Amino acid sequence: MQTSNITKYTPFKTIDLPDRTWPSNVIDRAPIWASVDLRDGNQALAIPMNVDEKLEMFELLVDIGFKEIEVGFPSASDTEFNFIRRLVDEKRIPEDVTLQVLVQAREHLIRRTFESLEGVSKAIVHLYNSTSPLQRRVTFNKTKEEIKAIAVEGTRLVKSLVSTIPDTQVRLEYSPESFSDTEVDYALEVCEAVMAEWSPTEDAKIILNLPATVEVATPNVHADQIEWFCRNLKDRNKAIISLHTHNDRGTGIAATELGLMAGADRVEGTLFGNGERTGNLDIVTVALNQYTQGVDPQLNFSNLSHIRSVFERVTRMTVHERHPYAGDLVFTAFSGSHQDAIKKGMDLRAKDTTDTTRWEVPYLLIDPEDIGRDYEAIIRINSQSGKGGVAYILDRDYGLDLPKAMHPEVGTVVNNAADKGSRELSPAEVHDVFQREYVNVGEPLEIVSINREDFSKTGEVKVEAAIRYKGQDANVCGIGNGPISAFVDALEQKGWKNFTLVDYRQHSIGGGSKTKAAAYIQIKQEDGIPAFGCGIDGSIELAGLKALVSAINRGHLALTE
Question: In 262-406, where does DSSP find H-type helix?
Fold first, then answer.
């Protein structure tokens, strides 16, 4: 790489548009969507889809709701041609879906393309030729006039062949390929020449597709290009302005969104951004971005996991773990502070789940359930996790609603276990750690048996318990306002109480005949250090006593005769 004085690369020229309006605009409706998965996406695969795989992808795209689908380059290969014929012969094309076919502005390719469309009800013939200075000089060695003539002659041939398939409603889409690197005034000149030849109307508009074939500048420059073009195009009301952004600079999505703000009507792209080099526009992300802003994208991604599984199977590609919305980890929080905030947001939302309730959960842009994801993977536990995440796992998966004061200590215990193993812990492993450390801890103190006697006049309770401490048996007896206070009194009478009972909570787990009780107790020892315990039992009384014994056993109490 060059350093300091970089001469190998130069900045892209900006557009003179001082009164640009797009920065103040908002996207308030869905564009026309056109999938190019079966063409741009397919040609970018190491192993292209076979006909059966393309059929499965086509049906998926129809199910999602695409009304315009570019199904191939039928003049390029027999596989592409035969795929279209199979769609026609097997009557697989819904009435409201338009097939789009790509073709270079070359006579024999255009004629072959029309042969493929026989029997198609509605078709878009997508004609293109490259217009950029680099392509004009390096690839074609032609002048501007010669390049424009290619576009016009191709359009004239397409127009003349429409009559050869009288049962097909044919629309024209024209792309000045490499628009992003073409002088905007020249791209406009070529497009207007194509329009003059095609003679579109307000009822039968031409599609002018302005591709960022290669990203050469920042997204704001792309938006300026689109707004300038829309402003200066003659008969703008007779054209649909379409975007087709690639992702060479990693900003294809931003460029598309700004292009829509700048006046574009239509978007071409692929599922999950599959395409040449760094990929095409990811329609999934742009559509769901709109959804999170309250705009109906007119595409159905309510079962995104299924869409991803079909995509990965037929393309043999993998959606990245951090891919927006669809990645395995996009709804996952390992960070303790994130987990705590998510838990609080989810807890608040659980109290009000009406359809009109706004989605307001920290760190989560979208409700995972809206796209067929569940909450299981929202919080994952490793050494970086925190109190809220661990408590959330225990509550969500095992019905253990820990008191808030208990969260920090339990979080630390679980995190230490993850750190020791240098790996993530599954929910079952989190539960195992909690069970082992806090639940029904029976050593060194154990209640062997216990009897209760109620005094109706005073409301007090007497307990007599046989206990075992470090293998030594003993009997204790105490009175209190309940079994727990009576057992504490029994320990105090033996001179064994060197703690204060701070907090007691209990709740049920499950329902019906299998309902159990969970109890949580916090004690404070003489040295001021708190200790927590949990008891689980079919009896709420025994659950409470087991929680107390667990807290004592987890503390520093040393019973002496």
Answer: 283-291, 304-315, 336-350, 387-398
In this structure, CATH architecture of domain 22-315: Alpha-Beta Barrel (3.20)
The answer to whether 469 and 557 are in contact (CB under 8 A) is no
What is the phi/psi pair of residue 296, to 5°?
-70, 115
Please identify which residue in the block is written with the tokens 């952004």. 245
CATH fold group of domain 445-554? Double Stranded RNA Binding Domain (3.30.160)
Residue with the two structure tokens 């929680």: 547
The position carrying tokens 């987890």 is: 554
Kind of pairing, strands 516-525 and 499-509?
Answer: antiparallel
Cα 269 from Cα 68, distance rounded (Å): 11
Beta strands in 45-155 (DSSP E): 68-72, 98-104, 122-130
pLDDT tens digits, 521-548: 999 988 888 999 999 999 999 999 999 9
pTM for this structure? 0.77
At 474, list the tokens.
């003993």
The 3-state DSSP class for residue 519 equals: strand
pLDDT, tens digit, 9 for 90 and up, residues 126-158: 999 999 999 999 999 999 999 999 999 999 999
Q: How far apart are CA 202 and CA 23, in angstroms?
A: 28
Q: Where are the domains of the chain?
A: 22-315, 336-437, 445-554
Tokens linked to 217: 């500048």
